[in-house]
Design brief:
By secondary structure, the chain is α+β, with helices and mostly antiparallel strands. The chain has 2 domains: 9-61, no CATH class; 68-132, TTHA1013/TTHA0281-like (2-Layer Sandwich). 36% of the residues lie in helices and 11% in strands. It has helices at residues 4-24, 35-61, 100-107, and strands at residues 74-78, 84-87, 94-96, 112-116. The protein has a 4-stranded mixed β-sheet with strand order 3-2-1-4, with no helix packed on it. β2 (84-87) and β3 form a beta hairpin. The relative contact order is 0.10.
Length: 157
């Protein structure tokens, strides 16, 4: 009489033959039909773990976000809130800018705009606001400027 263990082993053997017959068209194949798949899955998991470990080590060695805006003068735009700051690099302080025209007047015509997350701006001190109240947020192209006579309104005594 067969024991429970013998029956389980026989069932496993028959299922292996059935799988091999269906997948490889050879029920007496010497290797498991799912061996190649299993090796591929294990290799893929190993590569995934290595990439995750590498990203973790990189994050620990170089914490924080984007700090390329600290090199030179930039108009720093907070990606999350839309707040604009002028970074001159001379005093180590972000200055809130009232409008784009003021930022261009202070930073010059070659001022570059950089989008930065709030996390990247977390530890940077914020100074006093800079700019001209009521100045425009957009500037016309140089070709669309009025080159005629200047007009001005004079008010006063």
């Amino acid at each position: 009489m067969q024991s429970k263990r013998d029956q389980v082993q026989a069932h496993g053997f028959m299922m292996g033959r059935l799988s091999s017959g269906l997948l490889m068209a050879d029920p007496d194949a010497p290797e498991s039909p799912l061996g190649r798949t299993t090796r591929g899955v294990v290799f893929g998991l190993l590569v995934t773990v290595l990439i995750g470990a590498g990203a973790t080590v990189y994050g620990l060695l170089r914490p924080g976000g984007n700090d390329t805006w600290r090199k030179g003068e930039h108009l720093v735009v907070n990606r999350d809130t839309g707040a604009r700051y002028l970074w001159t690099g001379t005093d180590g302080v972000l200055h809130p800018v009232r409008n784009y025209a003021s930022a261009r007047l202070i930073g010059g015509s070659d001022l570059k705009s950089v989008d930065v997350s709030t996390a990247s701006l977390r530890d940077v001190p914020v100074g006093t606001p800079a700019g001209i109240p009521g100045a425009p947020d957009t500037l016309p192209d140089s070709g669309r400027l009025d080159t005629g006579a200047w007009h001005m309104c004079v008010t006063g005594p």
